């Protein structure tokens, strides 16, 4: 994973709540076995509508998506994160994220920026008034800055460190192999195996 | 210290705890299907890592499989299933393929085989993994990076979630199901109501549910944002498990039951959040909108967004009504459907099929309605055939299919056409979920059956009056 400390880019206001992962990347796209190329499928149903915000040229090249609450609810498909990243997004702002989406985003280095509904509303206003406004997501300060808006967002120390160092979670866990083996040695014998019948 | 059920299961699986870091949790069972695993197996190969515990891993083909033949016509779907087969062969994972008697939807086959047991940690690259919580397991959905993590390490780093209790007192009225209960709950708490929490369902009405009803409730936990849903194991759980293929036997059974008996929330334990619901007030419940929280009683009318406070909720309701092509004030019972789908990991089990067959027996599907039954697993299908339910459905004009996810998400050929309206026993009414432009009303199996017969949203009681 690429290390991230700050990201600065323009933002696109998505004034919708409950944007579920079926909207972010429809299930037709889930048949693919690759990890790349999902950008074309991002919001593909909505993008067919020229009035949809992502279809508007003034937001071309935006890399911060600002959405309403409950963003990324629904299915566990990490394809939603891959699609957002492949399209060019580095961060998503919302007052509340689906849990699995948030986890997936943090694994892949797409920063979920959780602000209050009020702050999101102000950000929508700022970006709509000036689509060229630069928005900065600063992991070190755990802060989003845009114009006169400065808003903190939650991110635990460990995850922040991992993102800023660009570390692979599996590699980190395998450092504790001895502890995993010790735990395994103590598991009760009645627990099921999928290969041996009980 | 007094602990809740979720905390007990969590604590028993902590491999490593360090200040300022997520806990490293051991995973007892990893369920795998074709959609969310290919990139994870690729990751293992790229890094040259072995699969740590094939014996705690189980795979099935469900999302892409056709339900009317054993041949996958769509080349991309076929490649995905073939990729799973190759990966399982290479890494030594047990796989239930199309045509195998134990194949089925991942959340149906785990409990059925008896590999889902109380007190376990269970993960799958699928959000409805919460289903397995019905046994008192801590079960949750993960993304593909996490799938790779579990394949490689049999663990997951995870931050201890908050706990929540949903206490459902009173008894469900006759004809009211677990599905109605959970739809009513989601309408009350909203789609984000459980976010960040592991929720424990408890109270008289929950204890009174069968295992299959409990699975329906836990299945939909994710639809209101909960990380997982759990129900404490009891005699109902043990009776369901006893004798299953992978359930413990002999001395192991006794040791297991002793451990399971301890998996109850301590009397003086506290939850971070509590919700109460009166089961006796719940009636058949259906959705009108495009998220599972947008539901009303079947006896009600399509709500008027103007009655909602201005803001996100009203906007969402307006957009949903437009998508669903519904007018505020229309009685739900007047809404005509084109399609009825009976199946999915929410309501594709034996009991669901039996209940629906009772409604259908001796009657005919309404003219112009396409109705299909897709059993949750091949074993469910075979059992239903032994009981003669296939004939009941077929005689009424239903399609009788093989097991799979099917129209729950429309990755196989079973999809809605744009503008088509469906009464579905599945769990998601998102825009386009069952096919581009399709409109979904979530319902119980009994309501699905009655709706197929009348062509409009209906409950079995409506048929008797007619
Ligand atoms: S039946 Fe539907 S919800 Fe269940 S696993 Fe399949 S696609 Fe997911």
Automatic annotation (TrEMBL), chain B:
Which pathway does it operate in? Amino-acid biosynthesis; L-leucine biosynthesis; L-leucine from 3-methyl-2-oxobutanoate: step 2/4
Superkingdom is Bacteria
Q: Taking every annotated instance into account, which residue ranges of this chain make up the domain Aconitase/3-isopropylmalate dehydratase large subunit alpha/beta/alpha? A: 7-455
Q: Which SUPFAM superfamilies match?
A: Aconitase iron-sulfur domain (SSF53732)
Q: Name one GO biological process term.
A: L-leucine biosynthetic process
Note describing how the cofactor binds: Binds 1 [4Fe-4S] cluster per subunit.
Is Iron-sulfur found in the keyword set?
yes
Q: Please tell me which top-level EC class this enzyme sits in.
A: lyase
Keywords assigned by UniProt? 4Fe-4S, Amino-acid biosynthesis, Branched-chain amino acid biosynthesis, Iron, Iron-sulfur, Leucine biosynthesis, Lyase, Metal-binding
What's its catalytic activity? Answer: (2R,3S)-3-isopropylmalate = (2S)-2-isopropylmalate
Q: Which residues bind [4Fe-4S] cluster?
A: 345, 405, 408
Q: How does it assemble?
A: Heterodimer of LeuC and LeuD.
Name of the featured protein: 3-isopropylmalate dehydratase large subunit
- Identify the species of origin: uncultured Frankineae bacterium
Print the organism lineage: Bacteria, Bacillati, Actinomycetota, Actinomycetes, Frankiales
């Amino acid at each position: 994973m690429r290390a991230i400390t700050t990201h600065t880019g323009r933002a696109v206001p998505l004034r919708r709540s409950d944007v579920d992962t079926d909207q972010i990347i429809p299930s037709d796209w889930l048949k693919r076995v690759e990890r790349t190329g999902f950008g074309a499928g991002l919001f593909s149903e909505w993008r067919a509508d020229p009035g949809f915000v992502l279809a508007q040229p003034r937001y071309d090249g935006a890399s911060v998506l600002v959405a309403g609450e409950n963003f990324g609810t629904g299915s566990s498909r990490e394809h939603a994160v891959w699609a957002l990243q492949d399209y060019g997004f580095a961060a998503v702002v919302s007052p509340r994220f689906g849990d699995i989406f948030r986890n997936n985003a943090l694994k892949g280095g797409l920063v979920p920026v959780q602000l209050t509904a009020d702050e999101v509303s102000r950000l929508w206003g700022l970006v709509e008034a000036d689509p060229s406004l630069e928005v900065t997501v600063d992991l070190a300060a755990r802060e989003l800055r845009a114009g006169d808006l400065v808003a903190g967002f939650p991110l635990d120390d460990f995850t922040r460190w991992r993102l800023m160092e660009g570390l692979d979670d599996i590699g980190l866990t395998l450092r504790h192999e001895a502890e995993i083996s010790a735990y395994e040695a103590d598991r009760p014998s009645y627990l099921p195996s999928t290969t041996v019948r009980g | 210290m007094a602990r809740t059920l979720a905390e007990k299961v969590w604590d028993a699986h902590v491999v490593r705890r360090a200040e300022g870091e997520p806990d490293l949790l051991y995973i007892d069972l990893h369920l795998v299907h074709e959609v969310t695993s290919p990139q994870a197996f690729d990751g293992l190969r790229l890094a040259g890592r072995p699969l740590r515990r094939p014996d705690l891993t189980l795979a099935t083909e469900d999302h892409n499989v056709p339900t009317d033949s054993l041949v996958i016509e769509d080349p991309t779907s076929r490649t995905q299933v073939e990729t799973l087969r190759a990966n399982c062969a290479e890494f030594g994972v047990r796989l239930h393929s199309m045509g195998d008697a134990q194949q089925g939807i991942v959340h149906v086959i785990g409990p059925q085989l008896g590999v889902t047991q109380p007190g376990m940690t269970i993960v799958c690259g699928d959000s409805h993994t919460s289903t397995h919580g019905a046994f008192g397991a801590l079960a949750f959905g993960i993304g593909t990076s996490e799938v790779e993590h579990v394949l490689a390490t049999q663990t997951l780093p995870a931050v201890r979630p908050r706990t929540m209790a949903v206490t459902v007192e009173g008894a469900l009225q006759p004809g009211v199901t677990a599905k109605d209960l959970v739809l009513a709950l989601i309408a009350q708490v909203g789609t984000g109501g459980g976010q960040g929490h592991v929720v424990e369902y408890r109270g008289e009405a929950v204890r009174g549910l069968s295992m299959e009803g409990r699975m329906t409730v836990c299945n939909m936990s994710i639809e209101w944002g909960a990380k997982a849903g759990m129900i404490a194991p009891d005699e109902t759980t043990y009776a369901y498990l006893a004798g299953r293929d992978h359930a413990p036997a002999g001395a192991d059974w006794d040791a297991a039951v002793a451990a399971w008996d301890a998996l109850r929330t301590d009397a003086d334990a506290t939850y971070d959040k509590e919700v109460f619901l009166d089961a006796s007030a719940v009636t058949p419940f259906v959705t009108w909108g495009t998220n599972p929280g947008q539901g009303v009683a079947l006896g009600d009318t399509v709500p008027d967004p103007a009655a909602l406070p201005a803001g996100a909720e009203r906007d969402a309701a307006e957009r949903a009504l437009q998508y669903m092509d519904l007018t505020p004030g229309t009685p739900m019972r007047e809404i005509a459907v084109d399609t009825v789908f009976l199946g999915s990991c929410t309501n594709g089990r034996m009991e669901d099929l039996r209940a629906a067959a009772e409604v259908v027996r001796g009657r005919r599907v309404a003219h112009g309605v396409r109705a299909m039954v897709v059993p949750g697993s091949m074993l469910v299908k075979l059992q239903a055939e032994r009981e003669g339910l296939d004939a009941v459905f077929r005689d009424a004009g239903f399609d009788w299919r093989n097991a799979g996810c099917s129209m729950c998400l429309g990755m196989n050929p079973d999809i809605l056409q744009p503008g088509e309206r469906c009464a579905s026993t599945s769990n998601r009414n998102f825009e386009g979920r069952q096919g581009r432009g399709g409109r979904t009303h979530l319902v119980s199996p009994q309501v699905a059956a009655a709706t197929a017969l009348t062509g409009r949203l209906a409950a079995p009681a409506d048929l008797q009056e007619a």
